[in-house]
């Protein structure tokens, strides 16, 4: 696929720059975003969305279950996971999610 400079009509040369392919016009010394790359990034975005949706459904199944009493319904089993909530130097917070009522709470150690 050959693209032409919209200003002078010269053939644009593909050049790799900052991990992206750009189209370069020698005559105008200008870089242009290729149309192909834009389409390509759109594809990546839609794929990412799918992964996030799938991840939400799958994530709960893969969480480990521990024996802990739910403060809301009294159920004795809950999923648990760790999450970095504040700075990287802070210890991660442990979250629990009741297997019965879905109530989520955090543990302060
Ligand atoms: Zn040009
Ligand atoms: Zn519960």
Unreliably modeled segments: 37-57
Q: Count helical runs.
A: 1
User: Which structural class fits the helix and strand makeup?
Assistant: alpha+beta
Strand content: 25-35%
Q: How many domains comprise the coordinates? A: 2
The biggest sheet, with number of strands, parallel, antiparallel or mixed sense and barrel status, is:
4 strands, antiparallel
Which architecture of the largest domain per CATH? Single Sheet
Helix content: 25-40%
Task: Determine the mean pLDDT.
Answer: 77
Q: End-to-end span in angstroms?
A: 60 Å
Outline:
With 109 residues, the protein is α+β, with helices and mostly antiparallel strands.
Detailed description of the structure:
The protein is of the alpha+beta class and 109 residues long. The protein folds into two domains: 44 residues; 45 residues, N-terminal domain of TfIIb (Single Sheet), CATH 2.20.25.10. Helix content is 26%, strand content 31%. The protein contains one helix and seven strands, in the order βββαββββ. The chain has a four-stranded antiparallel β-sheet with strand order 4-5-6-7, with no helix packed on it. The chain has a three-stranded antiparallel β-sheet with strand order 1-2-3, with no helix packed on it. The longest helix has 28 residues. About 19% of the residues have low confidence. The site of one zinc ion has 8 residues, from loops.
């Amino acid at each position: 696929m050959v693209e032409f400079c919209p200003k002078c009509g010269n053939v644009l040369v593909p050049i790799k720059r900052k991990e992206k392919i750009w189209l370069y016009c020698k005559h105008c010394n200008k870089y242009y975003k290729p149309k192909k790359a834009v389409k390509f990034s759109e594809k990546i975005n839609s794929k990412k969305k799918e992964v996030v949706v799938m991840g939400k459904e799958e994530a709960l199944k893969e969480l480990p279950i521990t024996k802990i009493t739910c403060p809301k319904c009294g159920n004795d089993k809950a999923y648990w996971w760790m999450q970095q909530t504040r700075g990287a130097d802070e210890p991660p917070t442990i979250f629990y999610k009741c297997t019965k009522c879905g109530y989520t709470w955090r543990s302060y150690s």
